[in-house]
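Service request form, structural biology core

Requester: graduate student, group of Dr. S.
Request type: structure prediction, single chain
Budget code: on file
Notes: please return the result as structure tokens.

Sequence provided:
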Amino acid sequence: MLDSKSLVELLEQKKLLIFDFDGTLADTSPLHARAFLKVLAPYNIKVDYQSIAGMKTKDAIKQCLIANGRNLSPNEIDTLVTAKQQYARILIKNELKPLPGVDEFLQWAKPRYRLAMYSSGSRDTINIALDKLGYTGWFVPMLCSDDVTHAKPDPEGYLMILKITGVSAKEAIVFEDSDAGIEAASYAGITIVDVRLPFRFGTIRDII
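Core staff response, request fulfilled:
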């Protein structure tokens, strides 16, 4: 487990904290997994959510089709993307919760660092989620799948954030939970915290 001392050392000399959203700040992964399962079930397509976590919705659906040996038309895929996003937004509005320790960490970090976000989710979905959690306007810039040409694991989004903020890679740190996101941040040359176990945001209690 990343202890408080290690976290403090990682944050030294940092000016910019960049967060992924799904699975990093909020427990959206089960909700997105349910949404994929619901829209793909009529096509008898099985979903291994861990293999598509961190991808754009369209890329994730295409990956599921390939894994199941299925081929759908572009229009059918677009329909599935829309249906998945709509159902996920309903689940987020009704059920979304922050991950343990996240609110405490963000409340501590907000006056001390610049906060930014780069998520593979759609902007509309992320805005709904941030509003639900009370974090609207906390992350500037906030880049989503709509803002990049090349999704994670390509580093485009992280490099864009560095360019927009004028902060160097060595002065930034990324919090991620997916292999694709970690790979993207690594390509961008930014220090990475993998928030999957055994990391926990709650270690901030030992700092303050």
